[in-house]
Amino acid sequence: MQDLSHQYLCTVDETLRFVATDPAYNRMLGYEPGELDGLAVDTVVASGDWLRIREHIRRRFSGEEPISRYIFRARRKDGSEFYVSNIATVVTRDGKRLSVGVFEDLSARIQEEYEKRTQEQHREQVMQEAIHAMSIMSSMRDPYTGRHEGRVGNL
């Protein structure tokens, strides 16, 4: 299996056990190469997401869902959880049906979105404080107009 920089590959058999994983997939989850082979898939899925993931896999193998696309919480070997996206389909190799999945760790994207929201909230707070400060300064200059500007600033 190949080592892609931001996408990780694994294959799972119909017994819901890992058949093969690429080195990047292992690193993403904190495992050594080959350590996941033969382990149950639920080993690396957050318990709250397992039933949903198992249903996707069942539907994929039954043909009801030829291509699966979903996001879930994965569980690293150390127990920490993080979000990944998965696109998977079923292939036949040497007469065995296998689910092949391409995964992407969404941690960086989620962190980036969080930081962007935090920065926007900070800018909004700074703007509100600046408006408040200007209205206080204005009221010190002209009490009548300043009170009016303060009320407008609170709108």
TrEMBL record:
InterPro entries: PAS (IPR000014), PAS-like_dom_sf (IPR035965), PAS_fold_3 (IPR013655)
Signal peptide: none
SUPFAM superfamilies (UniProt xref): PYP-like sensor domain (PAS domain)
Gene3D superfamilies: PAS domain (3.30.450.20)
Annotated ranges, domain PAS fold-3: 20-98
Protein name per the record: Two-component sensor
